[in-house]
Specification:
Length: 157
């Protein structure tokens, strides 16, 4: 598996945004928590690390969205590669509901509205990922992955 990993400076900006989202979205019906690490998974068609890194010309991290079924908050990602656009996502927050609360349309809409408000106030997204690691990763256990090899890439604007 090949993942794209943002530069630490950009990761810090995203982590601060995750914390802001948690503070603002938390309520008595749902608990949000950070997703770490902040990786972007590439499709299985990418297997050669150096070739993949050199073929990427632009990475756009778009405005965060809410998944209506899982209440996961993620940013869609557009990766320009060899003249094509590949879609992926970066998961920002996951959630659990409290007191056997199910994910209702009301809860989803409330979260979606508040997320839009936060994104309007904060100019973190959309953003362009200029410096990143393309990394071969391996699943170590159910909850753990490791980086085997990686290549740093800096994109020209």
């Amino acid at each position: 598996m090949i993942h794209l990993i943002p530069h630490p400076t950009q990761q810090l900006n995203i982590i601060n945004f995750q914390k802001l989202l948690i503070r603002r979205l938390q309520n008595e019906r749902i608990i949000f928590f950070q997703t770490i690490p902040l990786w972007i998974l590439l499709p299985d068609t990418f297997s050669d690390l150096k070739k993949t890194a050199s073929s990427i010309t632009k990475i756009n991290i778009l405005l965060p969205e809410v998944n209506s079924e899982t209440m996961e908050i993620y940013s869609p990602v557009e990766i320009s590669c060899d003249g094509k656009i590949i879609l992926s996502k970066m998961i920002l927050l996951e959630s659990i509901t409290t007191n056997k609360t199910s994910i209702s349309k009301d809860l989803f809409n409330q979260t979606k509205i508040e997320l839009k408000k936060i994104c309007t106030e904060n100019k973190n997204f959309p953003c362009i990922l200029n410096i990143f690691k393309a990394a071969n990763t391996q699943q170590v256990s159910d909850n753990s992955k490791s980086v085997e090899k990686f290549v740093w890439k800096k994109l020209k604007n």
